[in-house]
Amino acid sequence: xxxxxxxxxxxxxxxxxxxxxxxxxxxxxxxxxxxxxxxxxxxxxxxxxxxxxxxxxxxxxxxxxxxxxxxxxxxxxxxxxxxxxxxxxxxxxxxxxxxxxxxxxxxxxxxxxxxxxxxxxxxxxxxxxxxxxxxxxxxxxxxxxxxxxxxxxxxxxxxxxxxxxxxxxxxxxxxxxxxxxxxxxxxxxxxxxxxxxxxxxxxxxxxx
Length: 208
Description:
The protein is an alpha+beta fold. It is 20% helix and 28% strand. It has one domain: Hotdog Thioesterase (Thiol Ester Dehydrase, Chain A, Roll), CATH 3.10.129. The chain starts with a helix and ends in an 11-residue tail after the last helix. The model is unreliable at 1-11 and 196-208 (pLDDT under 50).
């Protein structure tokens, strides 16, 4: 099973022989607009945690981001989290990888609205301004469109200071690729994947 799952993903991912610059992510000519699934939560819905130990949103993950997601119009999601001392890179500032994880987490949540199991295969991030401990980061994510099994997304993170000032902090573009559910049962925890498949539409408790 592992070999067949890898065969699904690997043709879409280049395998460079040595490290070097990557070509920027671009939208294909055959891109079509994404629309919410018929059973997607309506705008204004607050989505529950994907999984209690999820680093992005799990309540039982010590030092996690504790993010929550609100459904917007179309295929859009907004999230927020507070930067704590557990999230430091340089003293007093959020770790860049952590900010990338928050962008990935929010863009991945868009998949819940179109009801497609997929994995991140490309994540591009621009860091625009330092993000201090104690600040809130709001992330607005949207699905740019779909081309076959490829799903394109973008997100912007806004820094909200303790005084209420706002400034662009990070931005991101991502490429996801639809995979069979067997991808998650092969590499993840089978019992949680099946629990996710059987959960009510209004609740996101495990997101494979």
